Amino acid sequence: MNQWQEFITTQTSQALKPDNHLCNLPNLGLLYVGGDDAGDFLQNQLSNDIHALDANICQISSASISKGRMYGIFRILQIEGGYILVMPRQILGEVQQRLQKFILMAKVVMADISDSFARFSVATQDPADLRDIVAPLAVNEVSQSDSLICVRLHSVANTTRLLLLSNSESEAIELWQKLSEKLVLNSEDAWLYDEICAGMPAVYPQTLEAFVPQMANLDVLDGINFKKGCYPGQEIVARTRYLGKLKRRMFLARLDSDTCPQPGDELTSDPSGKADGSGKVVSAVQVDDHCLMLFVGLIDKAQNNELTLLAQGKNRLTLQALPYSLDA
């Protein structure tokens, strides 16, 4: 994709402005899983039912160790000959290495195909902006052609959000040019902002094995199938649902600070500012004079507004409404 890379460097993006926008996504990773046994292999490794997936649906899923702690959260697409797992590129190598260990004698191949696709997102409140795209109508629906994959994402502030993946450099450049006539070219932070507002979790290198799927709200995001067969961590996930009481959840919060936390940064409820294991940051983005963040924390302490960042104890978190209910 040299032509695409050369072209995209000529496009000047603005600082984050939550508005109708077009974003290049160089930090979005695409892991291809193919081969005769790819479906069964993924069914035995991931939290969702891969056999319920088809080319017209995007599925949210996760991969965990035997203790139920996740090392990856993905959007999964079915394509001709296999599947694409969409995730932060920072963890793709780790995910590939861990999954590779389970292939054994199965007919499965994996490859990082991130650089084989132009990857960008669109957010707009005006349907006319999308007249050059065959856009799916419902969230998590997918439209595919020989060279373009289009995924409908969860909306934010009444916008239509699309993820676009193109393996044709000329088509990607032409489509980008048409969209850029109507939309603001924005930094990748705009994508992160929308994902955070939509309450969509991610795993980063700093949060590998930090959360079980329910802590990251995957049960209310249709990222877990509780009726499928075994997979690593399935016993813990099932026990949490049927026998336990979930003590931690993922919340959306505002932090009035010009210093944005990083994934994995600790939260505390201790008045003296000592670490007490109350929670961790999932993801965060700076917006003007404040930070918007997703965090996993103790439910009672979060709902009682008792949590602060360990490194910024004077700045208390202010919970914001998630776009979905936490009643699984």
Question: How would you explain this protein's 3D organization?
Answer:
By secondary structure, the chain is α+β, with helices and mostly antiparallel strands. 18% of the residues lie in helices and 32% in strands. It has 7 helices and 18 strands. The chain has a 7-stranded antiparallel β-sheet. Strands 8-9-10-7-1-11 form a 6-stranded mixed β-sheet, with helices on both faces. A hairpin with a 5-residue loop joins strand 3 (58-64) and strand 4. It is globular and about 60 Å long. 43% of the residues are buried.
**What structural category characterises the helix and strand content?**
alpha+beta
Mean pLDDT comes to 94
Q: Number of DSSP strands?
A: 18
* CATH topology-level name of the largest domain: Gyrase A, domain 2
CATH architecture of the largest domain: 2-Layer Sandwich
Describe the strand arrangement of the main beta sheet, using strand numbers: 17-16-13-14-15-12-18
Low-confidence stretches: none
Give the CATH superfamily of the largest domain: Probable tRNA modification gtpase trme, domain 1
Q: What is the percent of helical residues? A: 10-25%
| Total count of helical runs of at least 4 residues | 7
**Main beta-sheet strand count, sense and barrel state:** 7 strands, antiparallel
What percent of residues are in strands?
Answer: 25-35%
- Our Rg estimate from Cα atoms comes to 20 Å
**First-last Cα distance:** 42 Å
Text of the CATH class of the largest domain: Alpha Beta
Order of helices and strands: HEEHEEEHEEEEEHEHHEEEEHEEE
Tally of structural domains: 2
Global shape: globular
